Amino acid sequence: MKTIKRFFKHENVGILFALPAFVYMLIVVGYPIISNIVLSVQDVTVRNLARGTKNFVGLNNYIVLFRDEVFRLTISNTLKFTVYSLLFQFIIGFALAVFFNKNFSFAKPIRGLLMIPWMIPMTVTALIFKFIFSTDVGIINYLLHSLGIISENIEWLTNPNIALGCVIFANVWIGIPFNTILLSTGLTTISQELYESAAIDGANGFQRFIKITLPLLRPTIESVLVLGFIYTFKCYDLIYVMTSGGPVNSTHLMSTYSYKLSFEMFDYSMGSAAANVLLVILLVVGMVYLKITMEGEND
Q1: Dihedrals φ, ψ of 55, to 5°?
Q2: 181 in helix, strand or coil?
Q3: Domain containing 262 — which CATH number?
């Protein structure tokens, strides 16, 4: 007892305050992850679940998973979905952040209105875009018909060649406010005196952007891109509501395919293996983000 009291004196007392949070994370986060890892190295399907037999198969589920053409397609889809979403979200968000950083009337109210797409629940947004891209009653086909651009309705969400592009468009619309607000916050930390001094020295707008804005905004840009990657890479509800992974698996991501394996095909071990692959990728990206953050604090 005395040893415990001595341990929690002075510098070690912080451990006592952190202990409840550690126990909570261990139960709520750690236990499900460990259970999922254990499940991924067993053979558990709807056939043997009732019997209670859970045969150990080692890494066989992962081997079968990476031989699965659909899973390899989901990896490709996930990378395309993430890269294109991040690219357009960042470019448009950065442009809007620079625009709203100027002092003009109604800049702040309009910037506040940009948060509406971010505040709307994802499932609601997905339903809105599902109706927008609807073949028969969608507003896009209606406008194209009205302008005389098309004579037949375009099957936006049922055509394997363009369905992924439609969900990327919807995700870009959702992510623009996130990029705009964070980048706007970063821009407000840059002193206007730097721009004024550079202008006096003869630097034009492009030179000020390259030499002042980008270098000073680098920590914010890194945070926006890494957080955007994590948020986009694990996207599930948008895809599930708009296309459910179809048509012909053309919009299946790793997250939606993991769900399909577990709760539609009832191959729980394979679904767990797919989820663990997704988890490992996100953990690696998260560690990169922590490293970038720590290096920024040291600088």
Answers
A1: -75, 135
A2: helix
A3: 1.10.3720.10
